[in-house]
Amino acid sequence: MSISKDPTERMNQFFKAAASQRKIWLLIDEHGSVLLNTEEEECVPVWPSEEDALAWATQEWEGFTAEAISTAKWQSRWTVGLAEDDLSVVVYPDENGEGIVLFPDEFEFELKKRM
At CA 67, angle to CA 103 and CA 115, rounded to 5? Predict the structure, then answer.
């Protein structure tokens, strides 16, 4: 699957994959998930596949590994945890780190809508 330049299209690709596979892909190390800083938010980036996540495991994120989180685990733990930590989610960022940024509750709403 080629990566769209349109962030809305990438977001739709992400949610379609997450709903069908029941997985959300992150990059993690022993300290936790990578964080991506946007202009206004600290975000946890999420990807639709292991391959897409690993494409980001370079330079400053070298040594991070791709890990799948089940959508059930995401809904039971991650949404609340991210909200408590004042973190947002950047959905399927492009090579420049650009993507749709959602608050954790918005992300969960979009996910549930497609499942």
Answer: 55
Name the pTM for this structure.
0.92
**Residue 1 located in a structural domain:** no
| pLDDT tens profile 47-60 | 999 999 999 998 88
- Each residue's pLDDT tens digit, 77-104: 999 999 999 999 999 999 888 999 999 9
Supply the DSSP symbol for 78.
Answer: I
- List the domain range (segments joined by +) for residue 73: 7-114
The total domain count for the chain is: 1
User: Does residue 2 sit within a domain?
Assistant: no
DSSP code of residue 61 = G
